[in-house]
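Need residues for this backbone.
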């Protein structure tokens, strides 16, 4: 399996964020929002940083051109954050982005889902690990949600899901059963 497509925060200035659109203008603030999410040390700081990304690079199911360079940084945050609110926020962003459709009013957004999904899918091994082994039920449920969203191999997904023990988490058990039925 290929390595995840990720970028560390020290590479943020390699992107001309001001030339990229968000739902509310340019993406000039996105590097600071990513840095804020990476250093957030309590749930409130994570929530504030999250909302500086959600509703901008993705808004109510619509993704904007700024999402494409942002995903490798979000993936890096997910892969480097310990279990907890930052990792959950990174999952939530990736789930929203993976489900997103391009802004129909922006011709530069055409084809974004086809370009962004492989970036997100490159972290599949980490998502599978979290689904199987994370101690935090919220992480396991989000890993399941992301995996079912990005899966393009129903048989492989079904085999993975059949191999997952939900343990005492009844909600995860129900979500696994639903995902197995839909795979």
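Answer:
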């Amino acid at each position: 399996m290929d390595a995840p497509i990720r970028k560390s925060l020290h590479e943020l200035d390699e992107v001309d964020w001001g030339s990229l659109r968000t739902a509310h203008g340019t993406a000039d603030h996105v590097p600071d929002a990513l840095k804020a999410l990476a250093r957030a040390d309590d749930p409130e700081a994570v929530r504030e940083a999250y909302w500086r990304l959600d509703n901008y690079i993705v808004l109510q199911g619509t993704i904007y051109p700024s999402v494409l360079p942002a995903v490798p940084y979000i993936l890096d945050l997910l892969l480097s954050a310990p279990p907890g609110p930052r990792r959950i926020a990174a999952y939530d962003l990736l789930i929203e982005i993976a489900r997103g459709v391009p802004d129909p009013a922006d011709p530069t957004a055409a084809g974004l889902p086809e370009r962004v999904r492989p970036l997100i899918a490159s972290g599949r091994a980490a998502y599978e690990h979290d689904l199987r082994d994370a101690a935090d039920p919220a992480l396991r449920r989000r890993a399941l949600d992301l995996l079912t969203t990005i899966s393009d191999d129903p048989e492989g997904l079904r085999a993975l899901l059949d191999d997952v023990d939900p343990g005492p988490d009844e909600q995860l058990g129900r979500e696994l059963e639903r995902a197995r039925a839909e795979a």
